[in-house]
Design brief:
The chain has 586 residues and is an alpha+beta fold. It is built from 17 helices and 19 strands. Helix 3 crosses helix 4. The chain is globular and about 75 Å long.
Length: 586
């Protein structure tokens, strides 16, 4: 006869299940509460990091120290909340595990950065005004840079390692709230690594490059984005700068007519010849077609030295759009019959001047006056912090390229974005789009571009798809409404108002094109190898209002990587960059 109680075995089973369920519920509650706290801490770190950068630039070290302490506290808290055994165990689970692993890794990265990078940066800020970099009265005090270089080297190494780890975290594998926290923190680390890396580069390079150990001479090549070349635009005005003990002076100015075409071209790489024949080696204005500035820089220096005889220690190339950032720092600028403001200077220099001053020789004279006035105002009238901010913004937009004839300096420059070298694929995969005008006018003031990348698998192979839409946005009556100097009036075989552009798309290192089309159809192309990158080049002719879309799919090594970034020729109007779902080409 039963006493109404369950058998012992069944009671033990029920009790065991109850205990397990209770523990699971408690564990879920435990990690849920700690996860909310960790995400909040990481959001605080991200918000404070932006404020910290601003405080350091403004020289407010008291505020910077307070923000640094806050960052360290929240980063440490997030690390503590996500490093216990329960959290680690949840990280091993299928499906949901990546969420826990991602947050704990981001928290650990933030803690490492707060502990090993913030302190040396604040120590540097105490030695040197990072907002002005010691610039005063047109001269930079070079003394502090040697002293701060070791601390910045340590901070830069920490942040570079942190950025590499952060980029390896797959935010797309996490739930939306966590993905946002991961992306915010990753962005903050990347910005910090870039900024501190630039400061370290400055501390290592400025003492010698600005004549601290002997005078230096640099060719300054000013590019016009209205006639595009790979690194920004055709070379227009050109000058020689002298640097000595931190003081920069303008020594000599010249223009392209001072450099006649060469009967025997300068030696060029095979890839440059494959894409542009020997034109860059013959014509000074086309040297910026060369995709890699480590090749273009010495060629520009050689042209100057062969023409004028002065030894050259390096080359600095800037583009016309950079003037907008500089005039924002200097205030309105007067040259020739014009007065330019931040909002009008770009349009004036690369568009309006051709209608107002039809004579090309007079245009060159005004361009020289503008360059001299801008350089003088930047060095003597702009507030140092505003000038440094303008240069930093221009560098972020890839509108500055620097090459040094001194090997130790060039090794540092070529590894940075300022060096203009073709990028290496590391934590991120790079693809690129280069635009080179062959219309012979100044029609690219009206050019518009959109670049889309798509990542996935096609035919079972990892695939990176790059799509470029190029548009001639000139007015319908451009042939008659615009000056002949702008349209070229058919001089190079392109109908007035139309544009002819070489569009070069290069893929990840080691990948090869598996599909190429233009507007959905096959088109003749030129191919080349840029290092280990396969490049595909189309010639596109467009009437006003027309557009064309080029699609290139790459497969093989490096293709299909989720962290793919786009490098491109700097334009008057920056291209629209987007990521879309992959639709494999037929």
């Amino acid at each position: 006869m039963s006493d109404g109680r369950l058998p012992v075995r069944r009671r033990w089973l029920r009790w065991t299940i109850g205990v397990i369920v209770t523990l699971v519920v408690l564990a879920i509650g435990w990690v849920g509460i700690r996860g909310i706290g960790a995400v909040n801490d990481l959001q605080q770190v991200s918000a404070s990091s932006s404020k910290l950068k601003q405080a350091i630039v403004q020289g407010d070290l008291e505020k910077a120290a307070s923000l640094s302490a806050s960052i360290a506290h929240h980063a440490g808290s997030a690390h503590d909340l996500t490093s216990d055994p329960v959290w680690f165990g949840f990280g091993l689970l299928p499906w949901i595990g990546p969420n826990f692993s991602a947050v704990s890794e981001v928290a650990e990265i933030a803690d490492d950065v707060a502990a090993d990078a913030l302190v040396p940066v604040l120590a540097v800020a105490d030695e040197l005004d990072l907002g002005s970099l010691g610039l005063s009265g047109g001269r930079i005090d070079l003394t502090p840079f040697t002293q701060i270089e070791p601390a910045l080297a340590d901070a830069s190494a920490t942040l570079t390692a942190a950025e590499t780890r952060a980029l390896g975290i797959d935010a797309d594998a996490t739930l939306p709230p966590l993905a946002d926290a991961v992306r915010e923190m990753r962005s903050a680390v990347t910005q910090a690594a870039t900024a501190v890396g630039a400061l370290h580069g400055a501390s290592a390079l400025l003492p010698t490059m600005l004549g601290g150990e002997g005078p230096r001479n640099y060719v300054l090549a000013m590019q016009n984005n209205a006639e595009l070349r790979s690194s920004g635009g055709i070379i227009g005005a050109i000058a020689l700068l002298h640097a000595e003990n931190g003081q920069i002076t303008l020594v000599q100015q010249a223009s392209v007519p001072d450099f006649p075409s060469l009967d025997t071209p300068l030696p060029l790489s095979e890839s440059t010849v494959a894409l542009f024949e020997d034109s860059p080696g013959r014509f000074m204005q086309n040297l910026t077609s060369i995709p890699d500035f480590t090749e273009a820089g010495p060629a520009i220096a050689a042209r100057w030295q062969n023409r004028f005889g002065q030894p050259v220690d390096g080359v600095i190339a800037v583009d016309a759009v950079m003037t907008e950032n500089l005039v924002a720092a200097t205030g309105p600028l007067t040259f020739g019959p014009f007065t330019a403001t931040k909002d009008t200077v770009v349009g004036l220099l690369i568009s309006e001047i051709y209608a107002s001053v039809p004579d090309p020789a007079a245009q060159d004279e005004i361009f020289s006056q503008a360059a001299g006035a801008l350089l003088s105002a930047a060095l003597t009238e702009a507030a140092p912090k505003d000038l440094v901010a303008a240069l930093a913004a221009s560098a972020d937009e890839d509108r500055i390229r620097i090459w040094s004839a001194h090997e130790d300096e060039e090794a540092i420059l070529s590894a940075s974005s300022l060096g203009g070298a073709l990028p290496d694929d590391d934590a991120r995969t790079h693809v690129g789009v280069l635009f080179n005008d062959t219309t012979g006018g100044k029609m690219d003031f009206y050019a518009d571009a959109a670049i889309t990348t798509s990542i996935g698998t096609c035919d079972g192979e990892p695939t990176t798809q790059v799509t470029v839409t190029w548009k001639n946005d000139a007015p319908a009556d451009a042939a008659t409404a615009l000056p002949e100097y702008v349209t070229a009036n058919g001089f190079y075989g392109v109908p007035a108002g139309s544009t002819r552009t070489l569009i070069t798309v290069y893929g990840p290192e080691g990948a090869t094109p598996s599909h190429i089309d233009r507007d959905g159809e096959e088109d003749s192309v030129q191919t080349a190898l840029l290092g280990s990158r396969s490049a595909v080049q189309h010639e596109v002719i467009l009437a006003p209002g027309e557009s064309s879309t080029i699609t290139v799919e790459y497969q093989g090594t490096g293709a299909g990587e989720r962290l793919t970034v786009v490098d491109h020729t700097p334009m008057v109007t920056a291209p629209e960059i987007s990521r879309e779902q992959l639709r494999c080409a037929p």
